[in-house]
Amino acid sequence: MSRLIDITGQRFKYLIVLSRHGLDSTKKNTWLCQCDCGETAVCTGLNLKSGNSKSCGCKKHLKGLENPRTITDSERLKERKRALGTVKTWRKQVLKANPFCIKCGSKENLHVHHVVGFADSLHLRTDPNNGTTLCKTCHMDFHIKYGRKTGFSEADLNEFLGGSHERAPILSTGNTVGNIEARIIKYVSRWKEKHGLQDLKKARHYLDKLIEETEK
Predict the structure, then answer these.
(1) What is the average pLDDT score of the chain?
(2) CB 206 within 8 A of CB 187
(3) Which of 30, 90, 111, 148 is 20 to 30 A from 23, alpha carbon to alpha carbon?
(4) How far from each other are the two terminal CA atoms of the chain, in whole angstroms?
């Protein structure tokens, strides 16, 4: 177990840490803080150190330059806009290849999950093959157990799923049909021994994709 680093008395933007408060629902250390406005707030140490928690909430209503989250640098604004566009493209690619939760098979409330942690893999953040699909509930369950931005890996995902995970690679256009056929054969041939109805649903999904490709 890692040693607790006492941050009592330290200032984080508009907050001064008064004392340790306890643990939150995800077992992270929380701290009682005094805001410059006079109110108190309970924040995790992670949010304080990362800058996600800057006040008790009293600054949220402020607009423009008065809001501590406002970005004024033009180059940073351009970079952020480009990054958001890249993330949207990445998310669409992953969802197209994996249109269901690989944990429970749900097609509702789908989230795109980084296989290797977001903060641990700068060069893989928008690599489609470092993404897979989990529903909202399974995604939350994973991060509660393994952490949120750092420290988790493909091995953790395999453990969470109870074995090696099944996610479709982003298919190259030159070999789309061959990849789809391989997926259909894979799920149909193993459904009785492995995941039952879930595998049959996956096979049906790829059969529909094969029909779409054939009709083009």
Answers:
(1) 79
(2) yes
(3) 111
(4) 57
